Amino acid sequence: MSKLLLIFLLFFLNTYLLSAQNNGELFLSLEKLSESSYGFELDQHRYEWKSSERFISKGWKFRPGDNQQWRSLGYDDKEWALLDTDFTFTNPPVEWQGIGWFRLKLTIDKSLRNQAVALVMTHYGASEIYLDGKRVHQYGRVSADPEKEQVQRPLFGQPVILALDDKPEHLLAVRYSFHRAKEIHSQYGKLTKVNDQNSTAGFLIHIDTPSKAISLYGESLTKNLTTAMIILGVLLLISFFHLMLYRFYSREKYNLYLSIFTALLAVHSFTKFLPSYATLTFEGVMWSNIVNVLVGAVWLPVSMLAIYSLFYQRIPKYVWFYYLSTPILAYGWAFYNTHPITSQVAFTIALLSVVDIFRVVVRAVLHRQQDAWIIGVGILLSEIPLVAYLFPSMDNYYRFLFLYPVCLAIPLAMSVLIARRTARAYKQLGHQLNEVEKLSARSIAQEKEKQQILALQNETLERQVSERTAELRESFESLTRTQAQLVQKEKMASLGELTAGIAHEIQNPLNFVNNFSEVSKEMITELQQELDTGDIDEAKAISVDIKQNLQKIHYHGSRADAIVKNMLQHSHGNTGEKELANLNIIIEEYLRLSYYGIRAKDKAFTCTLEINLDQNLEKVEVVPQELGRVLLNLFNNAFYAVQQKLKLGLPKYEPKVTVDTQRKKGQVEIRVRDNGIGIPEGVQSKIFQPFFTTKPTGQGTGLGLSLSYDIISKGHGGELSVASKEGEWSEFTVLLPYIPVPEELLTASVAPLPTADNFPQP
């Protein structure tokens, strides 16, 4: 009977309490608050802290609109509708217009009178909390104007203390606004986090004792948050450490993959816990979730890269399938409530990737790859969170703590594996270093032995070198003497040709002098005879002829005298120093001497001379004798070339030598061109080498062009070049530095010959 009465009494109390709450009333007692398992646990859908029991969400009286009189304890709310405050984005109440008042009467037991209770609230909108008409706390700014509304999400688990007086009844009123609830649903409604039926657009409240609420709030900050930050810091340090390893040794790619893998895991963990420890708006929570999903989708293929790089030399190509499926993973995880087919595909891909990772690790362990078991242990440790689901009665903190092995187990296992590989590599390097030291010691001993042998050999070599040096010195002196003789021979050959030209040049006026002298001698005899006969007129006529002959004798004698004086001037002035000279006069003089020199050897030789001299060319600073030797050499070669081609008997061939002078970009250009036999292309690069000649043996020393090249390049700072086409023509070009000198400073260095402009053809 007593048992029946007890059951009836419990049933009556339960019915009374439920009916009281359903009519906008709630009975509170210290005993009920102390005995109830109030606490906060992280909800996987809302990322909010809620009590495991007795949310005060049902039985609230609600009225849409905004009126400050509705907070009063004496206001009559009998006509107000009952509304569950835990309404969702997907199914808001019809009466909800964006703002409204919620009222709940609290019946207080004697044990709670003149005591304090803790109220914990969570929502995404803005709220004001009133106790008996007095505002005790607010979150954000409540307003009927959506533009003025300022939403604020209460800090996770933070209690608000309500001081109760000795009255048995109190009124708890909440002024709440969230105008953007419908807008948010239209924007984010298809996302999993919004579409979830537990995504609250209203608010949740529960009441606890202050000591318990404050204890739980402190525990969440000191234990959970601290632990989360430590784990995040460890992940970032691991990522940075392996990134630096890759930076300084980029050959090992697994350090890069592990760095990215750990960094993504850190971002994934951060976005997982951020909404629980920051007062984010709903949009902030959504973006945190979106980043979490995207990072999770990328993290899976990167984890495969990291695993494959540890056990494979080359990553299989089929892994690209998982890279390309990243968008499917992200989309499927973000919309698994609204797009079940895509979600199933994403789940299948994720499952395949996880199975493949297990396959790679198991295969490595079975094939006894070094340290593969470490990754296996890490994967097993990552499954520890399953233990939390096997023990529902486990303390929330320890349940929460079990989540962290999945964050650290695999990265730490990979780091340990890499550390062991690195240590093993260092040991191998140590062994190799010992071997190198042994080899070095052996090499040093061998080197010492070689040094001794080399010392003996050096003494022998030094003696042989001394003997050989003496022989080479003697050979060099002999070669120097021979070269000097050849140079002298070349000079004598040039001198012979020059002498022949000079002799021919002087011979012409001397012949005229001799001829006119003989004629004058005969005419004087005739003059005497006419004077004896008394024929004065005839005698005068003869004297006139004699006078003309004497004038011609004087002219040709003066010409010979000028030639001799010129040669004397050249011979006396051969100091080897530069002086101002007229290039045109030097060219004409040596061209004439060369031409008459070759005609002295071959009386039948004739050649057309084309002379194009720049008459505006000012004097330049040269060594006339040295330049004359170069020109004489070039002219002789030109006449030799056309003479040899003339001997071939080609029809319609006319020998021709052309000489041009002109100014060209700060230089004087002298070009000597002939239409002779030319120079073969294969030997043009050797034409200026000493002792190289294209003439038959005995007809040239091979030093003429070599000496000419040295005179122009070294003595005058100019250039000497050749261009030729075999069988048709050759052209030598001399470039000399040209620095104009004012006319008043110029003096003639070579006396002009008293001849006509054109050369006479003998």
UniProtKB/TrEMBL annotation:
Name of the featured protein: histidine kinase
Reaction catalysed by this enzyme: ATP + protein L-histidine = ADP + protein N-phospho-L-histidine
Enzyme class, broadest EC rank: transferase
Keywords: Kinase, Membrane, Phosphoprotein, Transferase, Transmembrane, Transmembrane helix
Membrane spanning residue stretches: 228-249, 256-278, 290-311, 318-335, 341-361, 373-391, 397-419
Record has Transmembrane as a keyword: yes
Residues in coiled coil: none
EC number(s) per entry: 2.7.13.3
Domain of life (superkingdom): Bacteria
Residue ranges occupied by any Histidine kinase domain in the UniProt entry: 501-740
GO molecular function, one term: phosphorelay sensor kinase activity
Pfam family, one: HATPase_c
